[in-house]
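Quick one:
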Amino acid sequence: MGNMAKMSEDQINNQKFAKIRKKYINQYGKDDHKINIIIGKQEGLTDEEIDILDRKQLRKNKEIRDSDNYILKICAYCDQRVSPNGVDSLKGRLEELQERHKNKPNGSMHDPKVAKQLIQYALEIEEQVMRQCTLSKDSINDESIAPYVEKLKEYNVIQKGINNDIEER
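Output:
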């Protein structure tokens, strides 16, 4: 949900979506991470779930790699595989992110040395997760997740003052 705050105006060609995005930004600001936490709380996530939502950030990849919490590792890994265009390889996604954010001084991917280390940690997290799975990383793609995406589209996010616009979609 918070990713809509990161989008630029020129990326939006749907007026209904633009209206919803504007309401979110007016209500919550432009910090996508804070928006996710607020919505998670409003949707009734447990404290543990909020903690994972808070800690799955790219800039915390070293902490995630060193953690024994596989729920955190999996959530971070999944989040870091999704690009604006769908599911990508982890390395491809993070290289795309680094290129797109290289001119954002406050971003975690701005400094090439830091970005390289974060990518390395992410690849190590991927190895840790894959050692516990029966599927391969190459089998995780847009086609394989499509049934789950369809189920998520049925989920109704309830927002005070925003719900009516979301239901119009």
